[in-house]
Amino acid sequence: MAGHRTEPAGPGPAIAVALSVAGSDPSGGAGIQADLKTFHAFGVYGAAVITTLTVQNTRGVQAVHPVAADVVLAQLDAVDDDLAIGAAKLGLVPTVALAEALGERLHRRPLPRLVVDPVLVAGSGDALAAAGTAAALRALLPHALLVTPNLAEAAALTGRPVEDVAGMREAAQALVDLGATAALVKGGHLPERPIDVLLVDGAVHELDAERVPAGPTHGTGCTLSAAIAATLAGGEDLVAAVARARRFVHRGLAAAPALGGGRRPLDHRVSST
Known about the structure:
The protein is α/β, with parallel strands linked by helices. It has one domain (17-265): Ribokinase (UDP-N-acetylmuramoyl-L-alanine:D-glutamate ligase, 3-Layer(aba) Sandwich), CATH 3.40.1190.20. Helices cover 35% and strands 20% of the residues. The strands form 2 sheets. Strands 3-2-1-4-5-6-7-8-9 form a 9-stranded mixed sheet, sandwiched between helices. A two-stranded parallel sheet has the order 10-11. The protein is globular. The termini are far apart.
């Protein structure tokens, strides 16, 4: 029966549950695979709903195969009916149809502490979402506790250029005006220091960091949003969750293994504290 969660069959320790609704990366560096590694690193139980099957590796994306919207929603309902989800992240939404279906579902049945990572393009520069999806994603923002775009994604969502910290501040406010409770605009692609801008409860936080000389990498955005969701599922507040997630990504970048012939994945075995 929809909405009914059964009690565990036997004794066992309580554990927080985090859910990822995202695409699959068969090379393991991004998407569902990176999210589940991150959830494990943060000590929460990870569940996953797959929105997209990609053909990709560290060198790039060769093909994108969206999962039908009704199948995505059936996966989501199956998990939500059974597990007490503490927080969730929404990653790759490859089509307008799926964005609209998820919007209707979230209006009818919200997900708790939802982090929306508006994935539009892979780290390699390959397009992952169909044309028009960015506009459809705007309708999901009122369901988000936090939205975490990079510069290009923030520009696509707000319809304005986002090229510096001032533009990031304006974009964060625009995203909150569109309905998100809070916004984290990521500055990893800034030409100088990688400053992130967090707008929460009306306060703007400029979060500075040292750039990690890891070379080209992929999966940082997926890992960051998953780490935030994992920390929220564990009961921490949003500002603390963002700070802890950023530390984890920084360590993961610093330890990025030399795997494959393209962009390095993060090392998800680093400390999450």
